[in-house]
Amino acid sequence: MSTKAASGGVWSSKTGSLIAEDRPTLDEMAADARARPGRLRIAPRGDLEILFARTFAAPTAAVFRAWTDAGLVRRWLSAPDFPVIEAEADPVPGGAYRYAVADSQGRTMRWGGTFTAVAPGRGFRATERFDPPWHPGATEVVLELREAVGVTVALLTLAYESLAARTLVLRSPMDAGLALSLDRLAALVEGAPPG
Questions:
Q1: Residue of 61, 150, 141, 147 lying closest to 99 (CA atoms)
Q2: What does each C-alpha distance from 114 to 79, 119, 161 come to in angstroms?
Q3: The pLDDT of residue 95
Q4: Domains and their CATH numbers in the chain
Q5: Which of 188, 144, 172 is nearest to 54 (CA)?
Q6: Helix ranges, 16-59 (H)
């Protein structure tokens, strides 16, 4: 269930996430994330992108490592009813990653891609495809980590091949799943030493 927000967006009552309609810049997303620590902000931009922003009370190096080390990703990526059954990542340019989750009925979701650019401690750019696909085409994934006073702002941009794919993703319950995963990531990294 969502309700209209005064700031020009829609609040998800399930997750407390703001799904914006204002198509903000990354700087605006970062500022909003700093103003609402620990809350996920989601905004469409243009016809092909979805932007996500969330703060973590941890250094950028710790957040980057948790996002790119397959052993750590295994600990935060999934929901309790959809545990990770496969996790591999080689976070170097040209390196591959692959993840899979499964529920108790044996239904699986698999996805992976290739890192096309990596800036240790600051972010990465990668391709992403689901197997089998649940939306048409591939996705470009860009993670940018910005260090602010006492926090890291994570800015995630997903760029789809078509408006139809982006619309399908926005209509899915991805906000609830991602918010839960990022809460688990926060619990993992907050207070963790860098590196």
A1: 141
A2: 24, 14, 16
A3: 97
A4: 2-77+116-189 (3.30.530.20)
A5: 144
A6: 26-35
Chain position carrying tokens 């009925």 = 105
Q: How many residues does the chain have?
A: 195
Mean pLDDT of all residues in 95-121? 93
Q: Which of 59-63, 68-72, 81-85 has the lowest mean pLDDT?
A: 81-85
Mean pLDDT taken over the chain = 83
8 A C-beta contact, residue 38 and residue 152: no
Does the model's pTM come out above 0.90?
no
Whole-number Å distance between alpha carbons of 67 and 84: 14
**Exposure pattern of 52-88 as b/e (b: 16+ CB <10 Å)?**
bbbbbebbbbbbbbbbbebebbbebbbeeebebeebe
pLDDT digits (tens, 9 = 90+) for 47-67: 889 999 999 999 999 999 999
Give kind and range of the element (H or E) at residue 85. strand 84-89
DSSP per-residue letters across 103-160: -TT--EEEEEEEEEEEETTTEEEEEEEEES-SSSS-EEEEEEEEEETTEEEEEEEEEE
For residue 82, the 8-state DSSP code is: S
Question: Max Cα separation, the chain?
Answer: 45
